[in-house]
Protein backbone atom coordinates (compact mmCIF):
# COMPACT_ATOMS: atom_id res chain seq x y z
CA UNK A 1 0.00 0.00 0.00
CA UNK A 2 2.66 2.46 1.06
CA UNK A 3 4.71 1.38 -1.95
CA UNK A 4 1.78 2.14 -4.19
CA UNK A 5 1.42 5.60 -2.70
CA UNK A 6 5.09 6.34 -3.20
CA UNK A 7 4.94 5.11 -6.76
CA UNK A 8 1.86 7.11 -7.67
CA UNK A 9 3.27 10.16 -5.97
CA UNK A 10 6.47 9.77 -7.95
CA UNK A 11 4.47 9.37 -11.13
CA UNK A 12 2.46 12.54 -10.55
CA UNK A 13 5.64 14.38 -9.60
CA UNK A 14 7.25 13.35 -12.86
CA UNK A 15 4.30 14.04 -15.07
CA UNK A 16 3.97 17.56 -13.70
CA UNK A 17 7.66 17.80 -14.35
CA UNK A 18 9.87 20.68 -13.53
CA UNK A 19 8.79 22.53 -16.65
CA UNK A 20 7.40 25.48 -14.74
CA UNK A 21 10.44 27.53 -13.87
CA UNK A 22 10.61 31.21 -13.00
CA UNK A 23 11.64 33.58 -15.79
CA UNK A 24 11.10 31.51 -18.94
CA UNK A 25 10.02 33.33 -22.09
CA UNK A 26 6.26 33.21 -22.60
CA UNK A 27 3.75 33.74 -25.40
CA UNK A 28 -0.03 33.75 -25.18
CA UNK A 29 -2.27 33.59 -28.26
CA UNK A 30 -5.98 33.28 -27.51
CA UNK A 31 -7.59 34.85 -30.54
CA UNK A 32 -6.24 32.71 -33.32
CA UNK A 33 -4.56 29.33 -33.06
CA UNK A 34 -0.83 29.00 -33.82
CA UNK A 35 -0.37 27.54 -37.32
CA UNK A 36 2.29 24.88 -36.89
CA UNK A 37 2.57 24.39 -40.66
CA UNK A 38 4.73 27.48 -40.44
CA UNK A 39 7.80 28.12 -38.28
CA UNK A 40 6.67 28.98 -34.76
CA UNK A 41 7.68 32.51 -33.76
CA UNK A 42 9.02 33.68 -31.38
CA UNK A 43 11.11 30.53 -31.54
CA UNK A 44 12.75 31.07 -28.15
CA UNK A 45 9.47 31.37 -26.23
CA UNK A 46 9.32 28.14 -24.22
CA UNK A 47 5.92 28.45 -22.54
CA UNK A 48 2.80 28.86 -24.67
CA UNK A 49 -0.76 29.58 -23.57
CA UNK A 50 -3.33 28.60 -26.23
CA UNK A 51 -7.08 27.99 -26.44
CA UNK A 52 -8.01 24.51 -25.21
CA UNK A 53 -11.11 24.00 -27.32
CA UNK A 54 -9.88 25.13 -30.72
CA UNK A 55 -6.25 24.00 -30.60
CA UNK A 56 -5.94 20.49 -32.01
CA UNK A 57 -4.02 17.63 -30.46
CA UNK A 58 -1.82 17.71 -33.60
CA UNK A 59 -0.91 21.36 -33.02
CA UNK A 60 -0.22 20.75 -29.33
CA UNK A 61 1.86 17.70 -30.25
CA UNK A 62 3.86 19.72 -32.78
CA UNK A 63 4.52 22.38 -30.17
CA UNK A 64 5.70 19.78 -27.69
CA UNK A 65 7.97 18.29 -30.36
CA UNK A 66 9.60 21.72 -30.45
CA UNK A 67 10.22 21.43 -26.70
CA UNK A 68 7.47 23.85 -25.70
CA UNK A 69 5.46 23.74 -22.50
CA UNK A 70 1.81 24.05 -23.50
CA UNK A 71 -0.78 25.66 -21.24
CA UNK A 72 -4.39 25.25 -22.36
CA UNK A 73 -6.78 28.11 -21.73
CA UNK A 74 -10.47 27.83 -21.03
CA UNK A 75 -12.99 29.96 -19.24
CA UNK A 76 -13.84 28.08 -16.06
CA UNK A 77 -15.86 30.85 -14.46
CA UNK A 78 -18.00 32.09 -17.32
CA UNK A 79 -20.45 30.57 -19.74
CA UNK A 80 -19.36 31.28 -23.34
CA UNK A 81 -22.28 30.89 -25.71
CA UNK A 82 -20.21 29.78 -28.72
CA UNK A 83 -18.46 26.78 -27.15
CA UNK A 84 -19.59 23.33 -28.33
CA UNK A 85 -20.50 22.25 -24.78
CA UNK A 86 -22.44 25.43 -23.94
CA UNK A 87 -25.79 23.61 -24.09
CA UNK A 88 -24.80 21.60 -21.03
CA UNK A 89 -25.14 24.61 -18.73
CA UNK A 90 -28.56 25.09 -17.15
CA UNK A 91 -30.29 28.37 -16.34
CA UNK A 92 -29.58 28.05 -12.63
CA UNK A 93 -25.82 27.91 -13.35
CA UNK A 94 -25.73 31.35 -14.93
CA UNK A 95 -25.55 34.84 -13.46
CA UNK A 96 -25.16 38.25 -14.98
CA UNK A 97 -23.71 38.97 -18.41
CA UNK A 98 -20.18 40.35 -18.43
CA UNK A 99 -20.13 44.03 -19.19
CA UNK A 100 -17.83 44.08 -22.20
CA UNK A 101 -18.38 40.48 -23.22
CA UNK A 102 -22.04 40.14 -24.20
CA UNK A 103 -21.63 36.45 -25.08
CA UNK A 104 -20.53 35.48 -21.58
CA UNK A 105 -22.19 35.11 -18.19
CA UNK A 106 -20.79 34.44 -14.72
CA UNK A 107 -21.13 30.84 -13.55
CA UNK A 108 -22.22 29.37 -10.23
CA UNK A 109 -18.93 27.93 -8.97
CA UNK A 110 -20.62 25.67 -6.45
CA UNK A 111 -22.79 23.92 -9.06
CA UNK A 112 -22.16 20.20 -9.53
CA UNK A 113 -23.23 20.53 -13.15
CA UNK A 114 -20.69 23.31 -13.79
CA UNK A 115 -17.97 21.30 -12.07
CA UNK A 116 -18.76 18.22 -14.14
CA UNK A 117 -18.52 20.26 -17.36
CA UNK A 118 -15.13 21.53 -16.22
CA UNK A 119 -13.97 17.99 -15.43
CA UNK A 120 -14.78 17.02 -19.01
CA UNK A 121 -12.81 20.01 -20.29
CA UNK A 122 -9.85 19.01 -18.11
CA UNK A 123 -10.11 15.43 -19.45
CA UNK A 124 -9.99 16.94 -22.92
CA UNK A 125 -6.86 18.93 -22.02
CA UNK A 126 -5.16 15.77 -20.79
CA UNK A 127 -6.18 13.86 -23.91
CA UNK A 128 -4.86 16.58 -26.18
CA UNK A 129 -1.46 16.55 -24.48
CA UNK A 130 -1.56 19.91 -22.68
CA UNK A 131 0.97 20.27 -19.86
CA UNK A 132 -1.27 22.54 -17.82
CA UNK A 133 -4.53 24.41 -17.71
CA UNK A 134 -5.18 28.14 -17.43
CA UNK A 135 -8.73 28.33 -16.07
CA UNK A 136 -9.92 31.91 -16.47
CA UNK A 137 -12.58 34.13 -14.93
CA UNK A 138 -12.56 32.41 -11.58
CA UNK A 139 -12.81 35.75 -9.78
CA UNK A 140 -16.58 36.29 -9.84
CA UNK A 141 -16.30 37.66 -6.32
CA UNK A 142 -14.77 40.85 -7.67
CA UNK A 143 -17.74 41.52 -9.90
CA UNK A 144 -21.47 41.85 -9.57
CA UNK A 145 -22.02 38.26 -10.68
CA UNK A 146 -25.71 37.93 -9.85
CA UNK A 147 -25.08 34.65 -7.99
CA UNK A 148 -23.70 35.94 -4.71
CA UNK A 149 -20.36 34.23 -5.40
CA UNK A 150 -17.81 35.12 -2.72
CA UNK A 151 -14.05 34.91 -2.36
CA UNK A 152 -14.39 31.62 -0.46
CA UNK A 153 -16.34 30.16 -3.42
CA UNK A 154 -13.45 31.02 -5.75
CA UNK A 155 -10.88 29.48 -3.40
CA UNK A 156 -12.91 26.28 -3.10
CA UNK A 157 -13.46 26.15 -6.87
CA UNK A 158 -9.75 26.58 -7.62
CA UNK A 159 -8.93 23.84 -5.11
CA UNK A 160 -11.43 21.58 -6.86
CA UNK A 161 -9.98 22.37 -10.32
CA UNK A 162 -6.41 21.92 -9.04
CA UNK A 163 -7.13 18.58 -7.48
CA UNK A 164 -8.89 17.26 -10.57
CA UNK A 165 -6.22 18.64 -12.93
CA UNK A 166 -3.48 16.99 -10.87
CA UNK A 167 -5.34 13.68 -10.94
CA UNK A 168 -5.10 13.91 -14.75
CA UNK A 169 -1.38 14.76 -14.66
CA UNK A 170 -1.89 18.44 -15.45
CA UNK A 171 -0.45 21.49 -13.75
CA UNK A 172 -2.67 24.50 -13.10
CA UNK A 173 -2.24 28.26 -12.87
CA UNK A 174 -4.10 30.98 -11.04
CA UNK A 175 -5.46 33.73 -13.26
CA UNK A 176 -5.45 37.19 -11.67
CA UNK A 177 -7.52 36.93 -8.42
CA UNK A 178 -4.78 38.59 -6.42
CA UNK A 179 -6.51 38.54 -3.05
CA UNK A 180 -6.70 34.74 -3.03
CA UNK A 181 -3.04 34.13 -3.97
CA UNK A 182 -2.03 33.39 -0.36
CA UNK A 183 -4.77 30.74 -0.04
CA UNK A 184 -3.74 29.02 -3.27
CA UNK A 185 0.05 29.37 -3.62
CA UNK A 186 0.65 25.85 -2.41
CA UNK A 187 -1.63 24.20 -4.99
CA UNK A 188 -0.81 26.35 -8.04
CA UNK A 189 2.16 25.70 -10.34
CA UNK A 190 2.18 29.18 -11.89
CA UNK A 191 0.12 32.34 -12.23
CA UNK A 192 -1.12 34.25 -15.25
CA UNK A 193 -1.64 37.94 -14.61
CA UNK A 194 -3.13 40.72 -16.63
CA UNK A 195 -2.09 44.31 -16.03
CA UNK A 196 -0.69 44.16 -12.51
CA UNK A 197 1.80 46.85 -13.54
CA UNK A 198 -0.93 49.11 -14.81
CA UNK A 199 -2.78 48.70 -11.54
CA UNK A 200 0.34 48.89 -9.36
CA UNK A 201 -0.20 45.51 -7.73
CA UNK A 202 2.59 43.22 -9.01
CA UNK A 203 4.06 42.92 -5.52
CA UNK A 204 1.16 40.66 -4.64
CA UNK A 205 3.19 37.90 -6.38
CA UNK A 206 6.37 38.27 -4.32
CA UNK A 207 5.85 35.12 -2.28
CA UNK A 208 4.69 33.24 -5.34
CA UNK A 209 7.96 33.96 -7.16
CA UNK A 210 9.93 33.17 -3.99
CA UNK A 211 8.21 29.77 -3.94
CA UNK A 212 9.77 29.16 -7.40
CA UNK A 213 6.48 29.54 -9.27
CA UNK A 214 6.51 31.53 -12.50
CA UNK A 215 4.29 34.53 -13.15
CA UNK A 216 3.30 34.94 -16.80
CA UNK A 217 2.52 38.61 -16.98
CA UNK A 218 0.56 40.42 -19.68
CA UNK A 219 0.31 44.17 -20.16
CA UNK A 220 -1.88 45.53 -22.94
CA UNK A 221 -0.61 48.10 -25.40
CA UNK A 222 -3.00 50.75 -26.68
CA UNK A 223 -1.97 50.87 -30.34
CA UNK A 224 0.16 47.90 -31.33
CA UNK A 225 2.53 47.47 -33.03
CA UNK A 226 3.47 50.96 -31.80
CA UNK A 227 4.56 50.99 -28.20
CA UNK A 228 5.39 54.16 -26.31
CA UNK A 229 8.37 54.56 -24.01
CA UNK A 230 5.93 55.10 -21.15
CA UNK A 231 4.06 51.89 -21.89
CA UNK A 232 7.31 49.97 -22.03
CA UNK A 233 8.62 51.46 -18.80
CA UNK A 234 5.36 50.73 -17.01
CA UNK A 235 5.15 47.18 -18.35
CA UNK A 236 8.77 46.25 -17.72
CA UNK A 237 10.04 48.28 -14.78
CA UNK A 238 7.19 48.45 -12.31
CA UNK A 239 7.63 47.57 -8.69
CA UNK A 240 7.38 43.90 -7.74
CA UNK A 241 8.05 42.45 -11.21
CA UNK A 242 11.38 40.74 -10.50
CA UNK A 243 11.36 37.28 -12.04
CA UNK A 244 8.22 37.82 -14.12
CA UNK A 245 7.84 36.47 -17.66
CA UNK A 246 6.38 39.61 -19.20
CA UNK A 247 4.68 40.04 -22.58
CA UNK A 248 3.17 43.17 -24.07
CA UNK A 249 0.17 42.32 -26.20
CA UNK A 250 -2.75 43.63 -28.19
CA UNK A 251 -5.97 43.54 -26.19
CA UNK A 252 -7.22 40.81 -28.52
CA UNK A 253 -4.33 38.49 -27.50
CA UNK A 254 -3.55 37.89 -31.15
CA UNK A 255 -0.21 36.56 -32.41
CA UNK A 256 1.63 39.87 -32.01
CA UNK A 257 3.92 40.17 -28.99
CA UNK A 258 6.73 42.36 -27.77
CA UNK A 259 9.13 41.76 -24.89
CA UNK A 260 11.04 43.85 -22.41
CA UNK A 261 14.32 43.19 -24.27
CA UNK A 262 12.83 45.12 -27.20
CA UNK A 263 12.23 42.10 -29.42
CA UNK A 264 8.90 41.59 -31.18
CA UNK A 265 7.34 38.74 -33.11
CA UNK A 266 4.06 37.71 -34.67
CA UNK A 267 2.94 34.12 -34.32
CA UNK A 268 1.21 32.91 -37.48
CA UNK A 269 -2.31 31.87 -36.62
CA UNK A 270 -5.37 30.23 -38.06
CA UNK A 271 -8.85 31.38 -36.98
CA UNK A 272 -10.30 30.20 -33.66
CA UNK A 273 -10.08 30.73 -29.95
CA UNK A 274 -11.53 33.53 -27.92
CA UNK A 275 -13.93 36.01 -29.47
CA UNK A 276 -12.60 39.48 -28.67
CA UNK A 277 -14.77 41.66 -26.45
CA UNK A 278 -16.33 44.93 -27.44
CA UNK A 279 -13.79 47.67 -27.91
CA UNK A 280 -13.12 49.70 -24.79
CA UNK A 281 -15.68 52.41 -24.26
CA UNK A 282 -14.11 55.72 -23.46
CA UNK A 283 -16.74 57.94 -22.06
CA UNK A 284 -14.20 60.58 -21.17
CA UNK A 285 -15.72 64.01 -21.58
CA UNK A 286 -14.05 66.08 -24.21
CA UNK A 287 -13.11 69.53 -23.29
CA UNK A 288 -13.52 72.73 -25.15
CA UNK A 289 -11.30 74.61 -22.75
CA UNK A 290 -7.61 75.15 -23.30
CA UNK A 291 -4.97 72.49 -22.81
CA UNK A 292 -2.60 72.79 -19.87
CA UNK A 293 0.25 75.09 -20.69
CA UNK A 294 2.83 73.50 -18.44
CA UNK A 295 4.42 70.16 -19.20
CA UNK A 296 2.52 67.73 -16.96
CA UNK A 297 5.49 65.40 -16.62
CA UNK A 298 7.56 68.02 -14.86
CA UNK A 299 5.06 68.19 -12.04
CA UNK A 300 4.54 64.45 -11.99
CA UNK A 301 8.21 63.74 -11.61
CA UNK A 302 8.22 65.49 -8.28
CA UNK A 303 6.04 62.70 -6.92
CA UNK A 304 7.39 61.18 -3.75
CA UNK A 305 9.35 57.97 -3.58
CA UNK A 306 7.24 54.99 -4.61
CA UNK A 307 8.46 53.03 -1.61
CA UNK A 308 5.98 55.01 0.44
CA UNK A 309 3.16 53.06 -1.25
CA UNK A 310 0.49 52.26 1.21
CA UNK A 311 -1.07 48.85 0.86
CA UNK A 312 -4.77 48.81 1.39
CA UNK A 313 -7.01 45.83 1.18
CA UNK A 314 -10.09 47.41 -0.30
CA UNK A 315 -11.66 45.27 -2.96
CA UNK A 316 -13.49 47.02 -5.73
CA UNK A 317 -16.99 45.69 -6.06
CA UNK A 318 -17.55 46.74 -9.62
CA UNK A 319 -15.73 45.83 -12.78
CA UNK A 320 -13.05 48.08 -14.00
CA UNK A 321 -13.82 49.66 -17.29
CA UNK A 322 -10.41 48.72 -18.61
CA UNK A 323 -10.96 45.89 -21.06
CA UNK A 324 -9.36 42.59 -20.22
CA UNK A 325 -9.50 40.14 -23.03
CA UNK A 326 -9.33 37.07 -20.92
CA UNK A 327 -10.52 37.94 -17.48
CA UNK A 328 -12.75 40.77 -18.60
CA UNK A 329 -12.94 42.38 -15.24
CA UNK A 330 -11.12 43.65 -12.27
CA UNK A 331 -8.06 41.83 -11.11
CA UNK A 332 -7.38 44.35 -8.51
CA UNK A 333 -7.50 43.59 -4.89
CA UNK A 334 -4.85 45.72 -3.36
CA UNK A 335 -4.22 49.21 -4.56
CA UNK A 336 -0.91 50.81 -3.90
CA UNK A 337 -1.35 54.38 -4.97
CA UNK A 338 1.44 56.76 -4.27
CA UNK A 339 0.95 60.40 -4.35
CA UNK A 340 -1.65 62.45 -6.00
CA UNK A 341 -0.41 63.75 -9.31
CA UNK A 342 -0.89 67.43 -9.77
CA UNK A 343 -3.77 68.11 -12.04
CA UNK A 344 -2.66 69.70 -15.21
CA UNK A 345 -6.05 71.29 -15.77
CA UNK A 346 -7.45 71.25 -19.24
CA UNK A 347 -10.97 70.65 -18.01
CA UNK A 348 -11.56 67.15 -19.35
CA UNK A 349 -12.25 64.36 -16.89
CA UNK A 350 -10.87 60.82 -16.58
CA UNK A 351 -13.20 58.35 -14.96
CA UNK A 352 -12.43 55.78 -12.29
CA UNK A 353 -9.49 53.50 -13.30
CA UNK A 354 -8.56 55.62 -16.32
CA UNK A 355 -5.13 57.08 -16.84
CA UNK A 356 -4.81 60.70 -15.78
CA UNK A 357 -1.13 61.48 -16.12
CA UNK A 358 2.39 60.29 -16.75
CA UNK A 359 5.24 60.80 -19.18
CA UNK A 360 3.98 61.57 -22.68
CA UNK A 361 0.39 61.51 -21.44
CA UNK A 362 -1.71 63.91 -23.49
CA UNK A 363 -5.18 63.00 -22.20
CA UNK A 364 -7.29 64.29 -19.38
CA UNK A 365 -5.56 64.99 -16.09
CA UNK A 366 -8.54 65.51 -13.84
CA UNK A 367 -10.50 62.69 -12.26
CA UNK A 368 -14.22 62.27 -11.92
CA UNK A 369 -15.64 63.40 -8.63
CA UNK A 370 -14.71 61.12 -5.74
CA UNK A 371 -11.46 59.89 -7.35
CA UNK A 372 -7.91 61.15 -7.17
CA UNK A 373 -5.18 61.05 -9.74
CA UNK A 374 -2.53 58.82 -8.15
CA UNK A 375 0.84 57.66 -9.34
CA UNK A 376 0.79 53.89 -9.64
CA UNK A 377 4.10 53.87 -11.48
CA UNK A 378 5.46 57.38 -11.33
CA UNK A 379 6.61 59.16 -13.35
CA UNK A 380 5.12 57.04 -16.12
CA UNK A 381 1.58 56.21 -15.12
CA UNK A 382 -1.05 57.94 -13.04
CA UNK A 383 -4.54 56.65 -12.60
CA UNK A 384 -7.88 57.79 -11.16
CA UNK A 385 -8.34 55.81 -7.96
C1 LIG B 1 -4.95 44.71 -32.49
O1 LIG B 1 -6.34 44.48 -32.39
C2 LIG B 1 -7.14 45.22 -33.28
C3 LIG B 1 -8.59 44.89 -32.99
O2 LIG B 1 -8.96 45.36 -31.75
C4 LIG B 1 -6.78 44.91 -34.70
O3 LIG B 1 -7.54 45.72 -35.56
C5 LIG B 1 -5.29 45.16 -34.92
O4 LIG B 1 -4.93 44.75 -36.20
C6 LIG B 1 -4.47 44.40 -33.89
N1 LIG B 1 -3.05 44.75 -34.05
C7 LIG B 1 -2.07 43.84 -33.95
C8 LIG B 1 -0.69 44.33 -34.13
O5 LIG B 1 -2.30 42.65 -33.72
C1 LIG C 1 -1.20 27.31 -42.20
O1 LIG C 1 -0.01 27.59 -42.92
C2 LIG C 1 0.10 26.85 -44.12
C3 LIG C 1 1.52 27.06 -44.67
O2 LIG C 1 1.73 28.42 -45.02
C4 LIG C 1 -1.00 27.28 -45.08
O3 LIG C 1 -0.91 26.55 -46.29
C5 LIG C 1 -2.35 27.01 -44.40
O4 LIG C 1 -3.39 27.52 -45.21
C6 LIG C 1 -2.41 27.67 -43.04
N1 LIG C 1 -3.62 27.23 -42.38
C7 LIG C 1 -4.65 28.05 -42.15
C8 LIG C 1 -5.90 27.41 -41.62
O5 LIG C 1 -4.59 29.26 -42.33
UniProtKB/TrEMBL annotation:
Biased composition (Low complexity): 283-340
GO biological process: carbohydrate metabolic process
InterPro entries: Aldolase_TIM, CBD, CBD_sf, GH, GH114_TIM-barrel
Renumbered residue ranges of the record's region Disordered: 268-344
Start and end residues of each CBM1 domain: 348-385
Catalytic reactions on record: Hydrolysis of terminal, non-reducing alpha-D-galactose residues in alpha-D-galactosides, including galactose oligosaccharides, galactomannans and galactolipids
Lineage: Eukaryota, Fungi, Dikarya, Ascomycota, Pezizomycotina
EC number: 3.2.1.22
Protein name per Swiss-Prot or TrEMBL: alpha-galactosidase
Keywords for this protein: Hydrolase, Signal
MF (Gene Ontology): alpha-galactosidase activity; cellulose binding
Uppermost EC category: hydrolase
Signal peptide stretch: 1-17
GO cellular component terms, semicolon-separated: extracellular region
Domain of life: Eukaryota
Amino acid sequence: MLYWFILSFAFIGTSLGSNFAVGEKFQIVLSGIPNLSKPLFPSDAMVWDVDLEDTSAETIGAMKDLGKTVICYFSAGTYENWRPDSKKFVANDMGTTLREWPNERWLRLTSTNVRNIMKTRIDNAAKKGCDAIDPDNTDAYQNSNGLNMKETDSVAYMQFLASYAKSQGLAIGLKNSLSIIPSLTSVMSFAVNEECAKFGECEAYNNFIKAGKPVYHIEYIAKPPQITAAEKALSCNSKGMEGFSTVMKNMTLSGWVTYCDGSSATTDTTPGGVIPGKPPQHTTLTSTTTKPTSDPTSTLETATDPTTFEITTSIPTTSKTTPKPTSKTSTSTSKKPTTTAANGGGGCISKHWDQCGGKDWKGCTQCASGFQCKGVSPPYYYQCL
